[in-house]
Design brief:
The protein contains 14 helices and 28 strands. It has 597 residues and is α+β, with helices and mostly antiparallel strands. The two termini are 46 Å apart.
């Protein structure tokens, strides 16, 4: 069974806050990396075919109807499958855990009786490696290289063509559990898990976590779901938040814009911290800030734009030739070469995060401040260089207007950390103010096009870029400034497609890649925030509501959307989209005056 027929938005996401799985609308697990988000996948049919690994349950007779939901605010998925003879509920969840992750699936009888078939295809190393399978330790063990999986269930299974299969009857009131647990192959499998106890504890965990949210917008259900997604994308042991749970879901179906997002971007730091703090999650915000500081520790000239979940720096990009790609979108990539790019804006994001954290009452220690001073010393000598920009272009570096504006943010927040927050650094402040003013003057002179009456993508360009919506949100210029108004209007005029916002026009060639992409959901949320702040509140609300309608039935968003085919595009679920939803909801509710760093 090839998985190309399953749209991106037809997946659900479950997580144990160390890794996550995608489950299709009909209850098939098509993507799962064990034991971490960035580990090799043992189910990779999302990016290939059934032969690359999946775990499927389905009734022997024809399906009349399926439906699904999350259990309350928890990342516990319930999929109901109805046939003429009866109905069953498939309960999927991953208990928050320590060393050994579990994927637990319980088939529950609702009415009548249904004959259920199971197909488990384990392929380690992104769908490539066929494991050695044996019985032992109270289950069925699959071993290959460093990885081991054990399946424990009361149902009798058998092997057919390198596949584990089973057939069993579920009557009303029956509860048939399946527990799949990862372990290091050189170790013994862990003790058995009691599925119903694990379900109770998992529900209690998510209910308690969601209850902490400060609910204060007309869209609290969407906000809480987005916060739960962020928690689900968090690597619990370190506090790092991955951009998405997947790699290589395409920005254009059949195209080459396929990237690995299972890493932590510094760019997401400020917006994520704001969202967590404003929603009442101070400890998570602190953990995210601490992860950031540990990751960037060291020589300032070696700071990267992204890191692994534990702060790893080597994220070499490789192509996986044995996977056919989602709907033949090749290549499939693991690792991300953009990790070695020079991007000026991350300095603004880091200093903005430190400033916002201090405002939120998160202590800025002396050692933390020394690191920030080292970053500023590096930026003093490098802010005037071209870079690859916020969109990580693979074309030639340029003097991107957004990058320079964010360099201004870095100096501005560094000054404020001294002036307002009491950080030591009086000997630097006059110099930083001077550079801040110099950058501001240069951006206004070289980044603004009188012909367009707008700020443009890079110096000397006539192209527009939706990243410039961050200029007023970051406080570079006020919303009342006619240049900002002109930029917002220009983006509405030239970068809108079917009511949503494109990042830029790929056909203009700045990113060095062929093809096109969908509208960019975070930028669309930014526009809604900007429209609200320029007193176009009706238009802001209409755009925000349109964006909410793009979410799937479970409230999940990817990175992009194709309005023509009405499909979500890009990796899934996308932290940046959900963070932008949260902050836009706060702005439109007048709960937060600004979402910028």
């Amino acid at each position: 069974m090839a998985q190309q027929s399953t749209r991106i938005e037809d997946y659900a996401f479950i997580s144990d806050t160390q890794t996550g799985a995608l489950v299709s609308r009909d209850g098939c697990v098509d993507w799962l990396c064990f034991p971490r988000f960035d580990s090799g996948a043992c189910f990779a049919s999302l990016l290939g075919t059934r032969d690359n690994g999946h775990w499927r349950f389905w009734p022997k007779e024809e399906i009349d109807r399926t439906s699904r939901r999350y259990r309350g605010d928890a990342l516990i998925l319930e999929t109901e499958i109805e046939t003429k003879e009866g109905a069953v509920r498939l309960i999927d969840f991953m208990p928050p855990r320590g060393e050994n992750p579990d994927l637990i699936r319980i088939v529950e009888g609702i009415r009548g009786q249904v004959v259920i078939q199971m197909e488990l295809i384990i392929r380690f190393d992104y769908g490539r490696t066929i494991p050695w399978v044996r019985t032992g330790h109270g289950g069925l063990e699959a071993i290959a290289g460093p990885n081991g999986l054990i399946l424990r269930t009361p149902v009798k299974t058998r092997g057919e063509d390198l596949t584990t299969v089973a057939e069993f009857t579920v009557k009303k009131g029956d509860r048939v559990p399946f527990v799949l647990t990862w372990f290091a192959s050189h170790s013994r499998p862990p003790k058995k898990v009691t599925p119903d106890h694990a379900l109770r504890d998992t529900e209690r965990y998510w209910k308690k976590w969601a209850k902490r949210c400060h609910r204060k917008t007309p869209w609290d259900d969407a906000v809480v779901r987005s916060l739960v997604v962020l928690k689900g994308l968090t690597y619990g042991p370190t506090g790092g938040i991955v951009a998405a749970a997947t790699t290589s879901l395409p920005e254009e179906i059949g195209g080459v814009r396929n990237w690995d997002y299972r890493y932590c971007w510094l760019r997401d730091a400020t917006l994520t911290l704001i969202a967590l703090v404003d929603a009442g999650y101070q400890s998570e915000a602190k953990s995210w800030r601490e992860w950031l500081l540990r990751a960037i520790a060291g020589s300032a000239d070696q700071m990267q734009i992204m890191y692994g979940v534990r702060g790893e720096r080597r994220l070499e990009e490789l192509e996986i030739p044995w996977l056919s790609g989602y709907e033949n979108s090749k290549p499939v990539r693991i690792g991300n070469a953009a990790s070695s790019q020079f991007q000026l804006d991350v300095y603004g994001e880091v200093l903005g995060t430190m400033y916002r954290a201090h405002q939120a009452g998160i202590e800025n220690r002396e050692t933390d401040w020394r690191l920030q001073v080292a970053l500023m010393n590096f930026l003093e000598s490098n802010w005037n260089k071209p870079d690859e920009g916020i969109w990580e272009v693979r074309g030639d570096p340029k003097h991107f207007t957004h990058s320079k504006m964010m360099a201004w943010v870095a100096f501005d927040r560094a000054v404020k950390l001294v002036e307002e927050c009491g950080c030591r650094g009086a000997e630097h402040v006059d110099r930083w103010r001077k550079i801040r003013d110099q950058i501001h003057k240069e951006v206004c002179a070289r980044g603004f096009s009188p012909d367009k009456k707008a700020f443009t993508q890079y110096y000397g360009s006539d192209a527009l870029d939706a990243s410039l919506l961050m200029m007023p949100l970051a406080g570079f210029l006020p919303f009342t400034d006619k240049r900002i108004r002109g930029t917002i209007e220009g983006i509405e005029r030239e970068l809108m497609q079917d009511g949503f916002v494109l990042r830029y026009r790929p056909e203009e060639g700045v990113d060095g890649l062929p093809g096109r992409e969908g509208v960019f959901l975070p930028c669309s949320f930014w526009l809604a925030s900007c429209l609200h702040r320029v007193d176009r509140k009706k238009a802001a609300r209409e755009l925000f509501e349109r964006l909410l309608s793009v979410r799937n039935d479970l409230g999940l968003l990817s990175e992009e959307y194709d309005p023509r085919s009405k499909r979500q595009l890009g990796n899934f679920p996308q932290a940046f989209s959900h963070v932008s939803l949260i902050t836009a909801a706060l702005v439109l509710s007048d709960q937060h005056p600004s979402i910028g760093p």
